[in-house]
Amino acid sequence: MRFAAFTTVAGSAGEATSAEQHIDNLRQQTILAEELGYEAMWLGEHHFGPYAAGDLPNPILLGADLAARTSTIRIGQMANIAPWWHPIRLAEDVAILDNLTGGRVEVGFGRGIWPYEGPQFHPNADPRKDEENRELFRETVEIAREIWTNEFFSYRGTNYSFPADDTVFSHPLYPPDPAWQDGERVTRLRVTPRPHQTPHPPLWMTVSTDRSVTTAAELGLKACYWQPPALRIRQRMELYARVRTEREGRPFAVGEDQAVMRSMYVAPSMEEARRDAEEGIMSAFIFNDPFRGRQVFTNPGEILDDDVKLDWDFLEPRSLLVGSPDDVAAKIEELRETCHLDYLLVEFSHMGMPLERTLRNLETFATEVMPRFAGDS
Fold first, then answer.
1. Residue 345 forms beta bridges with which residues?
2. Within a domain: residue 182?
3. Residue 159 falls within a domain, yes or no?
4. How many domains does the chain divide into?
5. Separation of alpha carbons 139 and 130, rounded Å
6. How does DSSP classify residue 57?
7. 314 exposed, middle or buried (CB, 10 Å; 0-12, 13-18, 19+)?
8. Could you give the CA distance from residue 210 to residue 203 in angstroms, rounded to a whole number?
9. Which residues, in sequence order, are CB contacts of 225 under 8 Å at separation 6+?
10. Are 321 and 262 in contact (CB under 8 A)?
11. According to the model, what pLDDT value does residue 8 have?
12. How would you class 236 by CB atoms within 10 Å of its CB: exposed for 0-12, middle for 13-18, buried for 19 or more?
């Protein structure tokens, strides 16, 4: 199996109360993750956070700093919230990062779930405007990929059209070029640089519903599942495989091009793990509850009673990798057997957790859990 580290970035702050301390924490975490053999460090994107240290809202820019301090670990965004980005700027920034790192970049896309974020960037980025948000997401991803895979590109959509109408270029040093002009009229755009990886870095999408799973498969994006129980993951992996099989024209296996993200904390015993991590882990889930709802944690066919509480006893057996090394390894084995999982992202940093404890968590998982799955696929 392959293992990667994931942080929402807000979680990596721990006890930090300043951006400088927050950034330094994340640097230490990433350097240690590379030393311990994690395949990648994945960073989330959020804005306007109410927590003490705030957000580090640009995972691409932050990734450049982390890449400069490391040499082998891959640097990923899970995810760039596509509706919040101008597609040309997104494509350019990712390509620059991929060149800066010598091809160590992984790119994740998401749609966003917090309604106070999206409207600040684009009217149709509001997740409450579901169809508009989905269309904007698809256009942004399609444009970025067109830019990465073609020397020149043009695009006409509902939200974006490139080149802009009536764009002209006339200069005495540059005669009209039919590759991108019709006379002085610009018909296509050349965006540089191209990514280091050919044709582009691996592309992912965060998914949490059947519809988003279908979208990822239709677009040929790898899929990353946020926290659902193993049986739900299996059901959605089967859906993904069916749609990708139809798209690719070849059999697509369950688990292929897919990953799972799990909140993780390892301690000598379940009791100690709960004591150390419950507050930090639960604060994140409770914060997300109004936006995601509890249905994301259900198994196929399960209907929750209205009085079900989103608490530790509900979440731990369904969605958390918490406990002793034996406890956590058993839960990973369940995912591997049920879902044919071979790539796991572990959320190792939790709200308010001291840096020393966070680093110990990274190390304990790497030294006492990961070796049990070495060579498995």
1. 4, 261
2. no
3. no
4. 1
5. 14
6. -
7. middle
8. 19
9. 207, 208, 233, 236, 258, 259, 260, 261
10. yes
11. 86
12. buried
Site of tokens 């406990």: 323
Q: How far apart are CA 370 and CA 329, in angstroms?
A: 8
pLDDT at 341 over 80: yes
Which residue range is the domain that position 235 belongs to? 2-106+200-310+319-330+338-373
Q: Helices (H) and strands (E) in the chain — how many of each? A: 10, 13
**196 near 99, Cβ under 8 Å?**
yes
- Report which secondary-structure segment, H or E, holds 284: helix 270-292
Are 59 and 80 in contact, with CB atoms under 8 Å apart? yes
* Mean pLDDT, the chain, integer: 96
**Roughly how many angstroms between the first and final C-alpha of the chain, as a whole number?**
5
Rounded distance between C-alpha atoms, residue 290 and residue 271, angstroms: 29
Q: What is the pLDDT of residue 291?
A: 86
Other CB atoms within 10 A of residue 227 CB: 21
List the structure tokens of 305: 């009673």
Mean pLDDT over residues 246-259, rounded?
Answer: 97
Q: How far is the C-alpha of 74 from the C-alpha of 66, rounded, in Å?
A: 10
Residue 236 lies in a domain: yes
CATH number of the domain enclosing 49: 3.20.20.30
Q: Assess if residue 65 is contained within a domain.
A: yes
